[in-house]
Specification:
Blueprint lengths: L2 E19 L2 E15 L2 E7 L12 H16 L9 H5 L6 H19 L3 H5 L5 E3 L1 E4 L5 H14 L3 E5 L6 H11 L4 E4 L9 H5 L9 E2 L7 H7 L7 E3 L6 H10 L4 E4 L1 H4 L2 H13 L4 E3 L6 H11 L13 H4 L14 E3 L12 H6 L1 E6 L1
Parallel strand pairs: 5-6, 6-7, 7-8, 8-9, 9-10, 10-11
Antiparallel strand pairs: 1-2, 1-13, 2-3, 4-12
Helix pairs in contact: 1-3, 5-6, 9-11
The structure holds 2-succinylbenzoate and magnesium ion (MG).
Length: 364
Amino acid sequence: MKIEKVELRRIHMDLVAPFETSFGVQTERDVLLVNVLTDRGEGWGECVAGEEPTYSSEYVDGAQHVLIHHLVPRLARRDLAAKDVATLLRPVHGHHMAKAAIEMALLDAELRAQGESFAQFFGATRTEVDCGVSVGIHRSIAELLATVDAYLEQGYRRIKLKIKPGWDVEPVRAVREKFGDVPLQVDANTAYSLSDAEHLAELDPFELLLIEQPMPEEQVLAHATLAKVVKTPICLDESITSAQTAADAIELGACRIINVKPGRVGGYLEARTIHDLCAERGVPVWMGGMLETGLGRAANVAMAAMPNFTLPGDTSASDRYYHRDITEPFVLRDGRLKVPAGPGLGVRLDREYLDSITSWKGEA
Ligand code: OSB
Ligand code: MG
């Protein structure tokens, strides 16, 4: 396959409600999309980098810059397959979200040309996936309970509460008291330190499925130490940046569960390797989310249908995020989303709507 042209575009999408985490409040997304035109047809990729480098070091302007100046030039005018992208881009350190976006676009082009879906390519074993929902930090417990109630009413199969120091044990207790034994987990996005171990152990009586990323990205050993104090399983998100870091974290006892985000690890192919190595080691995985549009969601849902994705993912319906999606919406049915079955991503872009929300377009 030869790349003939790479078109980048930025689109603006308002979130249906503000989403607050321990690292900030988000009310909109400024999404970078990658459209590759090859001699075998086109493909689309979505970059999950946020506007600010606050979840990780990546941010959308940086992703756009590195794609134009460092990544696309290494791929242009050669005969290549999606599986070659990671090797060709290895000389460029980091920038996993940017790399993942271009690899995703090429994989889409390749699979569309072969008439194969992402799900088939990944060896998916389900046609629908169980969905959870990530619930942001709220201004009061009453408002939080109203939000959780509405999501449970819609059928979500698992609730994840965002926590930070000062908003942890009380919201968890309140949700447990009101909603009983609903599958529940928390995500701290690195907001704690090892000196909070005894405090985090106060979450143990609530029988959470997991505590996600309590401490900073680099503090993998500290998570292994924390795991000796806290009974709730530790799950890593930010710390898992590759198959290598996943294998090391498991070996060290830093996590019993892994949140798989293809953008964070440099692409869907690396994410598949993480799925496989976790399966071999008996470590369950689940599909994370980065407030994706229908494009990223299509690929995430396909991957979440692989056999070792045994916990519900942050793969919520389109209307959890946006009033209008750029593809046909993903709709929750009985707490599940349907895995797209068509070639490549298997979703149709609404080109007219896409153009209407495009803030910038350029060639890489
Ligand atoms: O830590 O999982 C996270 C969103 C943006 C950045 C980081 C995270 C999240 C979420 C939302 O939790 C997941 C989703 O529904 O897409
Ligand atoms: Mg997380």
